[in-house]
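OP here, attaching both records as promised.
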Amino acid sequence: MSIAVIKVGTFESYYRLIVDCEDKYSGELWRGEFKNRYIEEMTTKAKNPKQFAVFVKMLLAGFKREVPDEILLDLLTQNDLEQLKQRKTNSNESIGLPDDPRLKKYLILTLKGEYEKTHYPLPLSFLEEPDALTLRRTFTRLQGLIQLQNSNGFSQY
């Protein structure tokens, strides 16, 4: 799974973070849209509050791998989260969630401090029917990959 697009934009009088996640092999897409208030409340619940702008900078630093020892990003399914909870509590109970990879995914930003770790989960929903702009971006990205392969002497067959 690779992250294809991250957008941060200002809309009207508030900030909104949009995270698009694309499976580079299947083209399936997941999206999360988060208002600044949601981000700030979520970080407060995680007991390490961050302002919206700081959180966005951390997220971008994680994608660019600017501080790999401090900021980690993971993309997990609901089943992945359930397994982590079971390991953490040493429980063998299973909720028995269906193993549909298109279910909600979670982009987890982990901030590692000297004596603590803080996990910030961002839920991403599967896009059944992506909008035209998202499809156009995917098409352009794939065209670029094909051109790159052709310029490096790779055959398409």
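Record two, same layout:
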Amino acid sequence: MLEFSVSFRVTGKDVDPEEISGILKLQPSDSHKRGDPHYGKQGRYADFPEGLWALTSSLGQNRPLAEHLQNIRLQLQGREPVLAELRARGYLLDLFIGVFEIGDGDELALSASELKSLADLQLSVCFDLYTWNAPE
């Protein structure tokens, strides 16, 4: 069964997460400035090359993709002028969709209404795909 994680992201070299929070009147799920240290499972990586402000759907990964998209849309509702302002600054606004547990024959589809709602918000879409690993 496919699982999902969906985040609305604002990225750019001069993204200041505190400023973006103030403009959107929302608190991010994840954020950093350009140059902040980047730590992972293997220790410290190179510093972040650009700033990030991200708002992740609050639903569990087992919920359908359509529900995650609706969750994000509802949180952004009425903020279209602010999104346009951020875009005019040169920031990239996108929807990052993590898809997990992909197996043979799995399909992923977005309805016309879901595509229209993303187009209305002028959001690019980035898919990050993870296949299901059968136990050995």
